[in-house]
């Protein structure tokens, strides 16, 4: 069978309500209760994640914690345990790698798998998706939603349409019909301002939007938004989840459910992403001196910035310091952000010999601490150890209780 005759099969795997699900798994008494992970009640900060029970109260990620408390005062409010989530994420990604070597992890709880041409090996792709769901649940106790499509964008939307604990397959010949069943507000990557503008233009469906000539759409919405919408309404991948550049790199990013411009919340997300990247760097025995930041604004304008420093980046705290500097160079705070990402380029293995540095700074000492935590996490596997930098505002906090 030639490569040209192999139909593209992309899986998108998403761990349902990941942070909250890990908390409920680790503490079975939390099952069925509204669990909110993020800042402590009474402190400034936002919701990082919440269980589906909490979502029934209208709570969602990035919501101010004070607002969440008003909506659900009886909720269980827990701090972020990023080290624990990263450890569980590693277990799940290891399972995914057993199905294909072509795994693209895009965040701590999401990944794409290219299973094109594997039907002779695994059987029908929907059966493979069902088997994958069972394996993850048996080995980790967690539920995943799986979307299957001819490209990454369709697979992502398929996952979202089946949540929670879903399995949805969209074949290439059905992609346009599938898109016609998606609400405009559910198009991944569309922002609030674009939705508002479409409402003003009396465009209320994907079918309507697809029928508009692109030049007219560009005049009304701008070139970036029109190009994106023209692609997705036709079931074409707009390239949001493009592979990393050919030069060896490693990165992670997140697309916000709602465009954001609250600096504290965005920087908190950036800190979490920095810890995710450093975890993967340590696990893969990589090192780098070049930090790269990616931003996408509400109007689909995408910017990047990078900085190469004189020594290897040694810790998540140092990465975060450089990341904040890069963020400040590209964002003044006034423009809503829909996506943010951080990573490294020009990777080399830690086995590569390098000239010894004469002095050890604070970041180098933090690296040793992070490596020790990483080794203990691998050994203990229970998330007992958590970086204090991811628990700011939790000082003096009582053990988790239901209120």
Can you describe this structure?
The protein is built from 15 helices and 14 strands. It has a five-stranded mixed beta sheet with strand order 5-6-1-7-8. The protein has a four-stranded antiparallel beta sheet with strand order 9-13-11-12. β5 and β6 form a beta hairpin. The longest helix has 22 residues. The chain is globular and about 50 Å long. The termini are far apart.
Could you give a quick summary of the protein structure above?
By secondary structure, the chain is of the alpha+beta class. Helices cover 40% and strands 19% of the residues.
Q: For the report, how would you describe the main beta sheet?
A: 5 strands, mixed
Give the N-terminus to C-terminus distance in angstroms.
60 Å
Beta-strand share of residues: 15-25%
- Provide the spatial order of strands within the biggest beta sheet: 5-6-1-7-8
Apparent shape = globular
CATH topology of the largest domain: Dna Ligase, domain 1
| Mean pLDDT rating | 85
Key attributes of the depicted protein:
403 residues; MutS, DNA mismatch repair protein, domain I; 4 domains; five-stranded mixed sheet; four-stranded antiparallel sheet; 19% strand; disordered C terminus
Fold blueprint:
Blueprint: E1 10-15, H1 18-26, E2 35-38, E3 47-50, H2 52-55, H3 65-71, E4 76-78, H4 82-97, E5 103-107, E6 110-114, H5 119-122, H6 125-140, E7 144-149, H7 152-162, E8 167-169, H8 175-180, H9 192-200, H10 206-210, H11 214-221, H12 223-232, E9 249-260, H13 263-284, E10 286-287, E11 290-297, E12 302-308, H14 316-330, E13 337-345, E14 348-349, H15 362-380
Helix pairs in contact: 4-6, 11-12, 13-14
């Amino acid at each position: 069978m030639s490569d040209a005759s192999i139909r593209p099969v992309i899986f998108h795997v998403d761990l349902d309500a990941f942070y909250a699900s890990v908390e409920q798994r680790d503490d079975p008494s939390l099952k069925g209760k509204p669990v909110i992970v993020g800042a402590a009640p009474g402190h400034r900060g936002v919701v990082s994640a919440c269980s589906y029970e909490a979502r029934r109260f209208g709570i969602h990620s990035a919501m101010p914690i004070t607002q969440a408390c008003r909506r659900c005062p009886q909720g269980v409010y827990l701090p972020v345990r990023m080290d624990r989530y990263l450890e569980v994420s590693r277990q799940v990604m290891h399972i995914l790698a057993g199905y294909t070597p072509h795994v693209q992890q895009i965040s701590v709880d999401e990944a794409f798998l290219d299973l094109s041409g594997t039907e002779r090996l695994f059987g029908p792709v929907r059966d493979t998706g069902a088997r994958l769901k069972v394996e993850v649940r048996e080995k980790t106790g967690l539920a995943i939603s799986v979307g299957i499509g001819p490209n990454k964008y369709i697979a992502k939307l398929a996952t979202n349409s089946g949540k929670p604990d879903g399995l949805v397959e969209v074949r290439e010949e059905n992609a346009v019909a599938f898109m016609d069943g998606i609400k405009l507000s559910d198009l991944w990557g569309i922002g609030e301002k674009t939705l508002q503008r479409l409402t003003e233009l009396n465009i209320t469906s994907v079918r309507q939007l697809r029928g508009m000539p692109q030049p007219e759409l560009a005049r009304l919405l701008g070139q970036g938004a029109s190009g994106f919408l023209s692609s997705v309404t036709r079931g074409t991948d707009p390239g949001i989840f493009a592979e990393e550049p050919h030069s060896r790199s490693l990165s992670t990013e997140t697309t916000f459910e709602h465009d954001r411009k609250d600096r504290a919340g965005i920087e908190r997300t950036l800190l979490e992403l920095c810890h995710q990247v450093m975890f993967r760097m340590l696990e893969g025995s990589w090192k780098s001196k070049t930090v790269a930041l990616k931003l996408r604004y509400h109007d689909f304008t995408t910017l990047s910035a990078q900085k190469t420093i004189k020594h290897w980046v040694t810790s998540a705290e140092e990465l975060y310091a450089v990341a904040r500097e890069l963020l400040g160079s590209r964002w003044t705070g006034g423009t809503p952000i829909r996506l943010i990402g951080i990573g490294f380029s020009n990777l080399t293995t830690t086995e590569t010999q390098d000239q010894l540095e004469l002095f050890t700074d604070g970041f180098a000492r933090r690296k040793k601490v992070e490596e020790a935590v990483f080794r203990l996490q691998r050994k203990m596997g229970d998330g007992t150890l958590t970086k204090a930098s991811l628990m700011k505002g939790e000082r003096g906090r009582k053990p988790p209780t239901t209120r």
